[in-house]
Amino acid sequence: MARFLLKRLFSATLTLFAVSVLTFLMFFALPRDPVSSICSKNCNPERLERVRDDLGLNDPLISQYAGYMKGIVTGRDLGSAQGGRCDAPCLGWSYVTNEAVSDTIARVLPVTLSIVIPAAILWLLLGVGLGMVSALRRGTWLDRLAIGFSLTGASLQLYFVGAVLLLVFVYNLRLLPVPSYTSLFDNPAKWASGLVLAWVALAFLFSAIYARLSRAQMLETLSEDFVRTARAKGLAKPTVYGRHALRAAITPVVTIAGLDVGGALGGTVITETTFGIQGLGRTAVDAVRSGDLPTIMATVLIAAVFVVLANVLVDLLYAAIDPRVRLR
Amino acid sequence: MSLSPVEGVALAEIESGTDPGGPAVKGVVGRSPGQLAWLRLRRDRTAMVSGVLLVFFLLLGLAAPLIEMVYGIGPREQFQNMLDGFGMPLGYAGGVSGEHWFGLEPGLGRDIFIRLIYGLRTSLFIAFAAALITATIGIVLGALAGYLGGWLDAVINWITDLTLAMPFLIIALALTPTITLRFYGERGQVSSAFGVGVLIAVFAIFGWTSTARLVRGQVIALREREFVEAARASGAGLGHMLFRQLLPNIWAPILVSFSLAVPQFITSEAALSFIGVGLSDETPSFGRMIYRSLDFLQTDPAYVFFPGITIFALVFAFNLFGDALRDALDPKSSR
C-alpha cells in the first residue's frame, strides 16, 4: 500500500513537472513580448526595459524557470516593483492586477470550489441513482425516461442551459437573485442562492453522462455469475444490488468522476462565464485576454495539480471499492 | 432499443430470403460483417432518422452560398432600419418576419438565419477536419505503439497521460492568441481562414490521444494472434502489418469513436468561441452568437434560443447516430 502510494505520487510529480515545463515554454518562450501587453500604448522604452528586467525576462530561460519553481517551494524576493518579498507558494507578480498572483488565486479558488463540490455531489447522486434505477427497471417507462433524459442532457450545452435557467428563474419568475458569490462562512443562505443555478446547470449536464454510463455498467454487472450466485444463495435483493452489484458497477464511474471533478476544479470556464461569477476559470480567461502571463501560468498549473491529484485519489478509491483490485 | 446479437443475425438471415430485392433462393446467404452492420443500421429507426437529419444539416452547410442567393441576404448585411432606438429589433420574437426568418441581431442588425447557416458550415468544417486529422494521427501512433511496444509505447503513453493532465480549455484559450500573434503581430488583421486553421491545429494537438489509446488497446489484443504471426513469418514489412493485417480488424471501434468525436469538436469550437478566443466576430459561429446573445437575455430572449437550439439539434443527431452505429457494428455492446 505505502509502496504503491509512493510510486503513484512519484509519477504524479513527474507529470506535474512536465506540465510546468511545457506551459512555461509555451508562454514564456514563444516570441510574444509579455511586457508590451502590460503597457500597450504609451510606454517609453526605458520603462519597458525596466519591467523586463524586473520580470527577469532578460535572464536565460532555464534560470527563469528555476526561479519560478524556487518561488513556489521556498518563496523568493521579487524586487520592490513587485511587492518585495513573496512568500512560499509564490506564483509571481501580476502587472495587470498589481498584486501577487497567489493572492488572486486565494481569492478565486474558494469560488470555484463552491461551484464544483456541491455540483459534483449532486450530479453523482442523481446520475448514478438514475442509472441504477433504470438498469434495475430495464424496459419500463422509467428506464425510457432516464434514457431520454441522458440523451438530451448529453447533447445540451452549458451556456444554453445556463441562459435558459437564468431567463426563467432570475429574470422572469424572479425567484433567485442574479448569480454571485458570497462566502459560505459569511452567509450560507446567500451563498447557496447565488450559486444554485450553476450547480443545477452543471449537475444536469453531467448527471446525464453518468446515468448513461452507470446504467450500462450495472446492466453488464447484473448478468455476471456472482450476482446470480448471491441471489441463489438467498440474499435479499437490496443486499445483492446495493452491496455486491453496485460495487463492481461503480468502478469505471469512479474513474470518469475523478477526471471530471479534477478537471472542473481547475476552472469551470464556461459556467463562470455564463453566470458571471469570478472564479478560477474566469480569472484564466481574463488573464489570457490581458496577456497576464504569471496568472495564466498559475491557473494552468493549479488545474493540472487538481487533475493529477484526482487521478491518484481514484486509484486509491479503486482498492476501497472493488475488493478484486490489489495495489502494487 | 437495441436488438440482441442473436436476434439481429437471425433476422438478417430470415429476411434475406423474403426480401424481394435480395436473392430469390432461400437458404443461408454469406454476408460480410460490414453488410451485416449495414443491415442492422438500416433497420434501426433512430439511426435512420438521425442520419437523415445529419445529411440535411450537412447539405445546409455545404449549400450555404446557394441558400444566401435564394434567401437574398448575406451574413454581414446590416438592417439598422429594422431596429428601434435602443438597437433592439422591431416586431415580435426578435424581429421574426417573412423576410428575416429567425429575426435580427440586436445592435448590429444582422440576419440570424443566414448567420446560423454560415455558422453551421464553419462548425461542421472545423469538426470534420479536426476529427479526420486526430483520427489519422491517433491511428498511426496508436498502432505503432501497440505493435512495436517498447520505448515508443512508453513515450506515447506518457504523452497521453500528460495531455489528460493539461486543462484543455485554458491551454487552448492561452495558446490560440499566442499563435495568432506569432503570425500576425500585434496589429495585423487576422483572416477568418487563419482563425479556423489555428482552431483545427489546437484540436489536433490535444485530440489525438484518445484515438491513439483506443487503437493501441485493440492492436495489443490482436498482436499475438496467429494471423499476425503468420504474416510476420512470411516476411511482411511494418507498413503491411499495420495497415493490411491489423487495421482492417479494428475499423469498427475507430468509426464509432470518429462519429462521436465530431460532435465533441462541434461543442469545443462553440465553447472556445463562446469564451472569445476561437473565431473573430467576422466569422459566423454558434459560440460567438450565443456569447453575444447573453447580453440581451432579458431584452431579446429569442436571440439566445435560435443558435442554442440549432447546436442542440446538431449535436443530438450526431450522438444518436454514433450510438446507433456502435450498436450496428458491435452487436454485443449494450447501452
Q: Can you walk through the features of this model?
A:
- The complex is a heterodimer of chains A (328) and B (335).
- Chain A is mainly alpha-helical and 328 residues long.
- Chain A has two domains: 35-94, no CATH class; 103-327, MetI-like (MetI-like fold, Orthogonal Bundle).
- Helix content of chain A is 73%, strand content 2%.
- In chain A, α4 packs parallel to α12 (293-321) and α6 packs across α7.
- Chain A is globular.
- The model of chain A has no long low-confidence stretch (mean pLDDT 82).
- The longest helix of chain B has 37 residues, at 112-148.
- Chain B has helices at residues 5-18, 33-43, 45-62, 64-71, 112-148, 150-165, 168-184, 192-223, 226-233, 238-246, 251-274, 286-294, 302-329.
- Chain B has 335 residues and is mainly alpha-helical.
- The termini of chain B are close together.
- The chains are: A mainly alpha (328), B mainly alpha (335).
- At the A-B interface, α1, α5, α6, α7 and α10 of A face α6, α7, α11, α12 and α13 of B.
Briefly characterize the structure:
The complex is a heterodimer of chains A (328) and B (335). Chain A is mainly α and 328 residues long.
Order of helices and strands of chain B: HHHHHHHHHHHHH
Indicate the mean pLDDT of chain B: 79
Distance between the termini of chain B: 9 Å
The strand line-up of the biggest sheet of chain A is: 1-2
Q: Domains counted in the coordinates of chain A: how many?
A: 2
Total strands of chain B:
0
How many angstroms separate the termini of chain A? 7 Å
Quaternary structure classification: heterodimer
The second-level CATH architecture of the largest domain in chain A is Orthogonal Bundle
- Structure class of chain A: mainly alpha
Task: Tell me the helix content of chain B.
Answer: 55-70%
Radius of gyration of chain A: 24 Å
The CATH class assignment of the largest domain in chain A is Mainly Alpha
Which pair of chains forms the biggest interface, and how many residues does each contribute? Answer: A-B, 52 and 44 residues
Q: Hey, roughly how much beta strand do the residues of chain A contain? A: under 5%
- Largest sheet geometry of chain A: 2 strands, antiparallel
Approximate shape of chain A: globular
Please tally the helical runs of chain A, counting DSSP H or I stretches of 4 or more residues: 12
Output the structural class of chain B: mainly alpha
